[in-house]
Design brief:
mainly alpha; 6-stranded mixed sheet
């Protein structure tokens, strides 16, 4: 049996320590600058790879990060495990029910936001293949399908993080974007799995038809029978195993089994873990806190290894082609914006909201980089196009948030204090569940406004079932958009014991805002939600507000928090 020698173990530990440490350091710096952490993680690899470190000290760079030999194999294995787990977490973000429950807007954005850039990429790859970097002698069809898929896919994790940063994740606009991105990811990765089967890069002796058939059967079984199995198993694990270890171990085990199967049949392992993640994430029994814990573990430890290792593979200076980068950026942005904006307008969204959806969907981020790396390893593309894809992914991710913030600007921001009323304040709520809380606050609003209480409660609960409205730090914002309503109505309740609104941080909600806003003006709900999220962005805000003994003190504290 062959083992790593002491010197090789030393190099392995040093290289992993350098990768993780540098990636985390630069990832945190990127967050401080309001950029995705993946940008800093990629930069760490560029610094430690042939682009920078290799130019300063090629001997030490080759020792710490060799391109072949046992240490190279170990690093490749760890990077593969990292991306398998990363795609498992990405799959957990996918809730297929939200695509249907969001209705026509989400479906139209999802379909056109995928179809238009796909067709534009397909046409570009056929008409100007050399300008787009097709390798000499490369298969025209496979290259065209890859580029079309790369142009059409969005990055759900980056989109979700951008929406959270803008306090829009739990809003109606946020759910439309997330639903459309789910559709993009599911279709995009299925197409790419088929492309990998066509090129036989993971050849196992199976024919292309057999590989594709097994892939589709696997996805179908996991999303039906597997989904039911997960839904039945999760409550058992939560009841009889140590939480959260039992559930986390179960999810990771299933993800690795799925990855192993798709790798065996000739499709990259990431497709298997992604589909398993979708099946697990679809269960109502998966607590938000469990998902967040697994995401944080993978995002802070494993993902940085993968994204930093990308910079070790390519010299980003010698392989940088400005004309190709610009062409790819234009092709990507035009296709995605045209499809998503037209889809949103077709779905009845106002112009500003539609453009915000388009800018959000244009973020490519990690998903684009994953596809590019797999295509590079499979020989579909060369390093020049891979570098251009990475740059395009970084630029589109970085521009998404600022452009959304710009297009959603309000001439007069919606302030919570302007719509609050002492009549709609419940000091000591009796509700013990989220449904009861919505009913109690809806009944309070019904006393003073001409509202159909059953319709209001049903609309708010339907929204809650799509995605829980607990925003964390002890606050929940259930809401509904009401036809015929002329102005916003906000009922506020305080619950000392707390109510479970399935917040990402696992905390019970002690301050509950029921937002009822005009259906024909989504900006009101977006503005009020953002204002509330801003006031409670710090954990200390909750205790400060809970000291209020009456409505006057509550309003005073809200004004103080809003001014900070």
């Amino acid at each position: 049996m062959h083992n790593l020698e002491a010197s090789q173990l030393t190099v392995m530990l040093l290289s992993l320590g350098l990768l993780i440490g540098m990636a985390r350091l630069l990832g945190e710096l990127a967050r401080v600058l309001h950029q995705p952490a993946v940008l800093g993680e990629l930069l760490a690899g560029v610094i430690l790879g042939p682009t920078v470190f290799g130019q300063i000290s090629p001997e030490w760079q080759a020792i710490l990060f060799p391109s072949d030999g046992p240490n190279s194999i170990v690093l490749h294995g760890i990077s593969t495990l990292a991306i398998v787990l990363f795609l498992l977490v990405a799959g957990l973000e996918v809730d297929l029910s939200t695509v249907w429950e969001q209705g026509r807007s989400a479906m139209k954005v999802g379909v056109l936001g995928t179809l238009v850039p796909f067709l534009l990429g397909l046409i570009g790859a056929w008409v100007i293949p050399d300008m787009l970097g097709r390798p000499p002698g490369g298969d025209p069809l496979i290259f065209a399908l890859f580029l079309a898929t790369a142009m059409s896919i969005s990055a759900l994790p980056v989109i979700a993080k951008t929406l959270m940063d803008l306090n829009l994740y739990r809003t109606d606009l946020g759910m439309v974007v997330v639903s459309a991105a789910i559709f993009n990811d599911l279709i995009g990765f299925t197409l790419f799995a088929i492309i990998l089967g066509m090129i036989g890069s993971h050849g196992t002796g199976l024919s292309i038809v057999a590989t594709i058939t097994l892939t589709l059967l696997f996805a179908g079984l996991v999303l039906t029978v597997g989904r039911s199995f997960v839904h039945w198993t999760l409550p058992v694990l939560q009841a009889y195993t140590h939480w959260p270890a039992g559930v986390l171990g179960f999810i990771v085990t299933l993800g690795l089994f799925g990855a192993a199967f798709t790798e065996f049949i000739g499709i990259h392992a990431i497709f298997g873990s992604f589909i398993v993640g979708v099946a697990v994430g679809a269960s109502d029994h998966l607590h938000e806190r469990t998902r967040v814990m697994l995401e944080e573990f993978v995002s802070f430890i494993f993902a940085p290894v993968f994204f930093a290792s990308i910079g070790l593979r390519v010299n980003f200076v010698t392989r940088f082609d400005l004309s190709l980068v610009v062409l790819l950026l234009v092709l990507a942005c035009v296709g995605k914006l045209a499809g998503a904006v037209v889809g949103a307008r077709w779905g009845g969204m106002p112009s500003r909201q539609a453009w915000a959806v388009g800018f959000a969907m244009n973020a490519r981020g990690a998903m684009e980089i994953v596809l590019g790396l797999l295509a590079l390893e499979a020989g579909v593309i060369r390093q020049r196009l891979f570098v251009a894809l990475v740059v395009m992914a970084i630029v589109t991710s970085a521009m998404s948030g600022p452009l959304m913030r710009w297009v959603l600007r309000q001439k007069q921001p919606h302030k919570l204090q302007r719509v609050l009323s002492p009549k709609l304040f419940q000091q000591d709520m009796r509700a013990t569940s989220s449904r009861e809380a919505i009913h109690e606050l809806a009944a309070l609003a019904h006393q003073y406004y001409d509202l159909d209480i059953e319709a209001v409660e049903d609309l708010a609960w339907q929204r809650e079932e799509i995605a829980a409205t607990g925003i964390g730090n002890g606050v929940a914002i259930p809401h509904a958009r009401i036809s015929g309503l002329k102005e916003a109505i906000v009922a506020v309740g305080i619950s000392e014991p707390g109510i479970n609104f399935d917040a990402p941080d696992g905390q019970l909600a002690h301050v509950i805002f029921l937002l009822l806003t005009p259906r024909d003006d989504p900006s009101v709900q977006l503005g009020l939600s953002a204002n509330i999220a801003k006031m409670f962005r710090n954990p200390e805000s909750l205790q400060y507000v809970l000291l209020s003994k009456n409505f006057t003190e509550l309003l005073a504290k809200f004004k103080v928090l809003d001014s900070r």
